[in-house]
Amino acid sequence: MVTTEWERAVTGRGLYEREGLTARAEQALDALREGFRSGGTDLGSLLLYSGEAGLGKTSMLAELRRSVAAGDVACTLLTARGGEQQRNVPFHVVRQLLQPALAKLSEAQRRDLFESWYDIAAPALGLTAPSAGMQSDPQGVRDALDWVMARLAVRQNPLVLIVDDLHWADLESLSWLAAFASRVPGLPLLAALAFRPDEMPPEGDPLLAADVASGGLLKLQTLGPDAVAALVREEFGEDADELFCHQCWSITGGVPYDLVTLFGKLRDRQLKAVDENVPALLELVAAGRGPAVAKRLEKFGPDTYRFAYAAAVLDNEIDPAVAARVAGLTPAAAKVALELLRDERILTSGRAGLLEFVHPTVGTAVYQSMLSQGMRTAMHGKAAQEIIDGGLGMAAASRHLLETYPDDDAEVVQQLRQAAREHLAVGAPEAARRCLERALQEPPPETERADVLFELGCSTLLTAPSITINHLQAALSTVPGLNPEHRELATLRLGQALTHSNQCVEAAEVTGAEVDRTPPGPGRVRLLAAHFMWRAFIREESDAFDRFQRLADLSESLTGDDAGSRAVRVLRAWDLTLRGEPSAQAMTFAESAFEGNRLAEGIGWTNTTWGFEIPGLLGLSYVYNDRLDLALELFNEAASEYEVSGWSGGHLVFANFLQGLVLFRWGRLEEAENFLRLTLRKSDRLGRGTPLQWDIVGVLCDTLLARGRVQDAVDLAEEYSFGPPYPPVMVLPDAPTLYGRLLLAQGRTEQAAEHLTEVGAQLDARGWHNTVWAPWIGSLAQAVAAEDPDRARALAAEGLERARRVGTNSAIGMALRWCAAVAEPQDAVELLRQSVEHLGQSPTAYEYALALVDQGTALRRIGRPREALEALGQGVEIAAQCGADGLLARGRVELVAAGASPHRLRSVATRVLNQQEHRAAGFASQGLSTREIAAEMKIGESAVGKLLASAYRKVGAGPEGLAAALGLEPPDLPDVSGTTEE
To answer: What is the pTM of this model?
Structure first.
């Protein structure tokens, strides 16, 4: 971004009536410099200059640039400018910002700066060519740009980032800036962005909302008559007539750009600021505005206006030689035309010998003045060819190709398809979609139409499943159709898009129909696997038992080790798991997914044939069969692969959700809650109400219930509408079961019993008997126990029978605890002993702690306090380690009721604190303040507060009782009993 002629004219004078805006920018810049000098944090500021065309936004940014250059602390200045004709160029603004700074670094230095994000960010920034066939996740690219910008800010001088004409920024850059704005306050970075409010696209709304909340929105107004009079007298002398000054304000409306243009015209005609020249003002102002400028071009001859039109097509950063060729002019004729356009203040010099319009409104007017659509499209066509001939690639040429007339040109179709591939490779699916939609208008040859529709559908797979569905359906129905390989892939991807849009039934139907028309072979097996997979996700399946048997028959018939056969066996493992069949049988089928110690080729996390569903179902089979170690290893691998590949959208969110699920099942509840809350925030970027978000909300609600925070769980469910009506797809954990448990936890027992009875009937009809994934039967037993104890015991016994069929220790231990909850006291003790025995051999720490506390409570109630103390002590300790606050509180109450000595309570309290908590609590028990503890531990005061809050919660005492709870002597406090006020 360079200083234009009109900017120089304005900034050479004072910025009248802009003192407040200038001061705001100076304060932000001073705070950045001073904070950076003193090593502070949270230095960033965001300034948005909002105003209509000509109000001086560019001048404000120029003033900021001047202040940056004049400061005593060096800042790294990054500048860019949106272009009206370049909004279809992906990452155009981002590249302007970062390329100059990155060009100063060697490739090794850039790789060090980018770290693992290099292969993702470098193609988007135009630093390297993308790999062949690469399709970057847009969210991954945005995350990579976040990383690069943050690293630049913290590794070098503080950053000042300036973007002018933000309303014309390309979609990709604007979306990134809107998301990155929330990170600005935590970085040594000042971002100043200028835009026209009425032209800001919806993608900029989050940016505006964030800035309004922070008070950084700076609205520019027109100048008042006094400011205009001062400008006139500064320009033409203190003796300028009053009426002349007032008319300058009245005619221009106080718009700074119009004033500067008017002053230039007055100087050209050597007119003085006297009353007799007032009649000339209106004509001069009109002549300087965009429409009049464009009209004047007609008087300059064809060479001049063709050069101006070519410049308007190229937009800003105009290469004079390229403009001459696009205009069809000889170098000599182009030189004459250029000089005339300079003299008329239409074009001016930019950086590195390039040209630009003196103001964006002039460029817009010139472009719009091309009344002949044929001339406009012809020039765009020539511009595209210039870019192609210059070896800059189809993606760069595509913005011009989009503006040409459809002309049944097969070569243009190929160029647009290639441009779409290049856009996808850098994470710009919207740009790819525009190219492919334009290719359809050309139109393509009939033999290629289905392929273009297929590519169009695939381009939006990661970002817009509904659009993908329409195009892939069209591709599959087009005659002549796709080749067999593309047809299979189109069907599989259509199934994915339908499922991710809550249309599992349709996904199963589509793949089933394709199976019927596909001859035997690996392709048919892959389609069968997809068909069974989508069928498995349907919650209300009418012929579930028939599907179960057909899947069993298919898995037995496939003896090969190809990807399709392995996928079928993974589906069989998950089907057995959901149906509550023996765990050993399910795990045998799960083992076939591996080759050596890794997932077999063709069913990995980044495989484009299956998506993440097959390895995801494999990991879930481990989760619900007590192999949390294998599940976590698998899910960590998924997250790592997605991060390396830059798949930071739905894929990484899914992997993070699975990691959170394992943490919950493992009993690491505090860790699970933090992890799932972060994942939930990420899922909001994908849109509300997606099947994946239901999964996340469900497990987070389950975690909150386990932590004893019922109201938090209820509030979360209400916030995300987690309840009837349920999505037609399976949710982890089962959504209706969890909703019934929420009702029960709130004390709405009758409603819970009615709801869970209905849920159980539906799941039984579906053949899903897994008591861990959907523990409806144990919750129903508890709900009806008071009114119908016989039914409650029958339900619990049925749950135990189902759990024994599965055979895992966690399933059996949980079911035994349900039986104990509704049994007679003497019977309950034995049932809980068995429950503790089984759960002690499982990885589910929270369930183990729950059984121990229940066991201790039951022992106390039948008069066996010594044994109760042992179980309760162990249960409380594990509950604290899990972060199960509610269970911890209940266990402590039971310990007291069982007669635990203060020493015993202190011993338990001491053991449940982790090392950091114990150290912080020890300092606090000595009377140290939070600030003093922070200094001793070399951590922040807020971190100390969190540690102490956790310690108070775990030991069950506040500051005054902390020393006693830890078995320490209380601090010696000064005796103030005898003091009096003076």
So the answer is: 0.81
